[in-house]
Amino acid sequence: MIRPVPAALRRWGAPSRPLVRRVRRWVDERPAPPPSAFASFGSGSWIVPPTEVSGAERAWVGADVVVLEHGSLIVADGAVLRIGDGTRLARAVHVRCTSEVVIEADVSTSDYVSILDTWGTAAGDSERALPTPGAAPVRIGRGAYLGCGAVIGPGVHVGAGAYVGEGAVVVDDVAAHEVVFGNPARLGALR
């Protein structure tokens, strides 16, 4: 049996719909930093809002790069992020950089990919009580493809033309033209 909600609870329950709409509109309309905020921003490149960008002055973005909405590019102090020409980062792709992340030219991803050079936090999150694990540079080779929900961990080198399957958690290097999948990622075939 469904009972009606008392009037007192209805008054103080969920936020009003206009407030929710205003917050959503604010989030959806957050602009990405202008190209001049980046260390380098190639011609024809797009960062589709809302995308969180922190540390843009330490990020080099090549020509014709597309970063779709709801993702993040977080570059900590002293770190370097390089995204090569023609790279396509799909929706909700998160890149966390505390040392160095290099995404070479013509890399493509599906949605919900994470590229991390540390398993800890990135941009000086001082609220954490636990020490942050060490960072190790990450490199994604030219023409590689990262499937939906893939996680690329610290210190990993994904070779040129490699294919990382959906949901793969990559903690070891992937050679050029290899196909890997699973958790942890393991060799499936050669391309």
Short note summarizing the structure:
The protein is mainly beta and 191 residues long. Helix content is 9%, strand content 30%.
Architecture overview:
This protein is mainly beta and 191 residues long. It has a single domain, classed as UDP N-Acetylglucosamine Acyltransferase, domain 1. 9% of the residues lie in helices and 30% in strands. The chain contains two helices and 20 strands. The strands form four sheets. The protein has a six-stranded parallel beta sheet, with no helix packed on it. A hairpin with a 4-residue loop joins strand 19 and strand 20. The longest helix has 12 residues, at 17-28. It is globular and about 50 Å long. The model has no long low-confidence stretch (mean pLDDT 85).
Which features would summarize this protein structure in a list?
single chain, 191 residues, mainly beta, UDP N-Acetylglucosamine Acyltransferase, domain 1, 6-stranded parallel beta sheet, 20 strands, 9% helix
Topology, please?
Blueprint: H1 7-12, H2 17-28, E1 40-41, E2 46-47, E3 52-54, E4 59-61, E5 66-67, E6 72-75, E7 80-83, E8 88-89, E9 94-97, E10 100-103, E11 108-109, E12 114-116, E13 138-140, E14 145-146, E15 151-152, E16 157-158, E17 163-164, E18 169-170, E19 178-181, E20 186-190
Parallel strand pairs: 1-4, 2-5, 3-6, 4-7, 5-8, 6-9, 7-10, 9-12, 10-13, 11-14, 12-15, 13-16, 14-17, 15-18, 17-19
Antiparallel strand pairs: 19-20
